[in-house]
Specification:
alpha/beta, Rossmann fold, 4 domains, six-stranded mixed beta sheet, 18 strands, globular, ABC_tran_C, ABCF_ATPase, ATP-binding, Putative ABC transporter ATP-binding protein YheS, DNA binding
């Protein structure tokens, strides 16, 4: 087991904030590690230090000579007008057949592969970037919040990719379900220290809570003993006959020390709006069509949401979840039919278009006091601000200087301090860390109003949702089952697709199935022969791929020499070599395509 990356005695500050304080960790070549910590703890800084794009104040990062880092880029690396295939070839310098093969692992094909990559949704662009990452043949992946804005199917595809990737990875995510499915160990950054736990995130969080509770109990016992000893010392040190006992007790008191309980911040607690419970139908749609002028997203929607439900809107990216939510909050007019909320409904909305329109002249505190209900105290406001990471001097920051993530958290804090009895939430967990997402889920579970929401965080969805509404193929309807059932159905659809692509569809190919009247023995013989033929084809394909890669490398090397060659005879010879290799490549690639069409 080789150590690919070793961090020793790393120190890093940002202003007065300590991000790394004598931090140390070793990352080995066959372990996938989930990397967690509060927002602002320094996780992204640590990743940049590993990449070499951020300098440490002191300490060192040691790379193994064989280390090849694959980093999932958050920025847009695409050029105007290029297709996904164009980008993959440009970025990886791999031949088109290889790019197409890897793209197929992420179901990138047809218009998604050959159309403009910038026209794709964020989730599909992430698939393209993952394919590009794999084409560079890394042995250590670094993924920073890879599930942000990915729909459920893309998340599961990413999980399957990581499951089959038999090398190392360091994954930053607030999505507990994703980390649990992909990582066998957990790394926490807390108060500048790195702690590696040899287990999955759920076990780590349980262990950490138990450790802290144990330390609290021990501290309480120590403090009680300290008080007892101090009382004896104060009473007896002035008495000659008991002074020696008092000195002995004083030495005991010096040895008694409490344990510092490691917590990044005060425990997060979020409260939902305080409203009265209602019964009956909260919202009804009849013959509703949603979309935009010239583009109908879904129609003939017959839907009811009851008071007190927490309805999860599910579906792939691009199917219309956000369009439905925008229609429900009157941000979009229905194209047809009716949509009506019940009597005395007050809608509270959390979405992109809301937190980009805050009053930039106000401070954080002024905004929260302005939007909170009349019964809210200053302490309530400060507590909510703190829970959403606005503490100390941050509550006096002007809205105009806040980042996009800070504005999103401010909008969430204001919404939760208000009086809305229906909450419409579009991706409420984005920009929040693991503990805050957990606290928000707990608050929504105790909320007496109605919630309609979307989220890509499966753990959050499973905790909060009481029912599921699916947007798919131009229709919107109640899904008959809970969120876990929906999750299983999507997983099975993806598994079936992967079995079909790999030629393992759960039985012999159609050509090998016995026709009616043939014996089961003949059918089994046919099937075994088909399987042997299939293995031969797969072996030949692998050998051809090795030859193609070798010839491709040889061709690149000769072309590089041609660019600098000044001797005419040598240039002619090199050109003839390139021509010969090109002809060989053409023949081998043609055979490779024939075999793939036979699989």
């Amino acid at each position: 087991m080789a150590v690919l990356i070793q961090v020793r005695d790393a120190h890093k500050r940002f202003g007065d904030q300590v991000l790394l304080d004598a931090a140390e960790v070793s990352l080995v070549d066959d372990v996938k590690v989930g990397f967690i910590g509060r927002n602002g703890a320094g996780k992204s800084t640590f990743l940049r230090a590993i990449m070499g794009t951020e300098e440490l104040e002191t300490g060192e990062v040691i790379h193994h000579p064989t280390l090849r880092i694959g980093y999932l880029r958050q920025h847009d690396p695409f050029q105007d007008g290029e297709s996904a295939m164009d980008f993959l070839i440009r970025d990886s310098q791999q031949p088109d057949w290889r790019c197409g093969e890897v793209a197929g692992q992420f179901e990138i094909k047809g218009a998604y592969l050959d159309g403009p990559v910038k026209a794709l949704s964020g989730g599909w662009q992430t698939r393209v970037k993952l394919a590009a990452l794999l084409l560079h043949d890394p042995n250590f992946l670094m993924l920073d919040e890879p599930t942000n804005f990915l729909d459920l199917r893309t998340q599961i595809l990413l999980e399957h990719f990581l499951r089959d990737f038999n090398k190392a990875a360091l994954i930053v995510s607030h999505d507990r379900a994703f980390l649990k499915a992909t990582c066998s160990q957990t790394l926490e950054l807390s108060r500048g220290k790195l702690t590696m736990y040899p287990g999955k995130i759920d076990s780590f969080l349980e262990y950490r809570d138990e450790r802290r509770e144990h330390d609290r109990r021990v501290n309480a016992t120590v403090i009680a003993k300290q008080k007892q000893l101090q009382k004896f010392i104060d009473k007896n040190r002035a008495n000659a006959s008991t002074a020696s006992q008092a000195r002995s007790k004083a030495k005991q008191l010096e040895r008694l020390q409490t344990t510092e309980i490691q917590v990044d911040e005060p425990t997060v607690h979020i409260r939902a709006p305080r409203v009265d419970a209602k019964n009956g139908t909260a919202m009804r749609c009849e013959g509703l069509a949603i979309g935009y002028p010239g583009h109908r997203v879904a129609d003939n929607i017959q839907l009811e949401i009851e008071h007190g439900q927490r309805a999860a809107i599910v579906g792939d990216n691009g199917q219309g979840k956000t369009t439905l939510l925008r229609t429900l909050v009157y941000s979009l007019d229905p194209l047809e039919g009716t949509m009506k909320w019940g009597h005395n409904i007050e809608l509270g909305t959390y979405a992109q278009h809301v937190y980009t329109s805050l009053d930039e002249r106000q401070t954080v505190l002024e905004h929260l006091e302005y939007v909170s209900d009349s019964d809210t105290t200053r302490q309530d406001v400060l507590a909510m601000a703190g829970a959403l990471l606005f503490r100390d001097e941050h509550i006096n920051k002007k809205v105009k200087v806040l980042s996009g993530g800070e504005r999103a958290r401010l909008c969430m804090a204001g919404l939760l301090l208000g009086t809305a009895n229906v909450l419409i939430l579009d991706e409420p967990g984005n920009h929040l860390d693991v503990e805050t997402v957990e606290a928000l889920a707990d608050a929504l579970q105790h909320y007496k109003g109605t919630v309609v929401f979307t989220s890509h965080d499966r753990h959050f969805m499973g905790q909060v949702a009481t029912n599921v509404i699916e947007v798919r193929d131009g229709s919107v309807k109640n899904y008959h089952g809970d969120y876990d059932t929906y999750l299983l159905s999507v997983e099975e659809q993806i598994n079936e697709g992967e079995r079909e692509r790999s030629g393992k569809g759960g039985g012999p190919p159609q050509a090998a199935k016995s026709s009616a009247g043939k014996s089961s023995k003949a059918s089994a013989t046919d099937y075994r022969q088909t399987q042997r033929d299939q293995r031969k084809i797969e072996k030949e394909i692998k050998n051809l791929e090795k030859k193609i890669a070798s010839l491709d490398d040889e061709k690149k090397a000769i072309n590089a020499k041609l660019l600098t060659e000044t001797d005419a005879k040598e240039a002619v010879r090199l050109h003839e070599e390139v021509t010969s290799i090109t002809e060989k490549l053409s023949e081998i690639e043609e055979r490779w395509m024939e075999l793939n069409s036979e699989e």
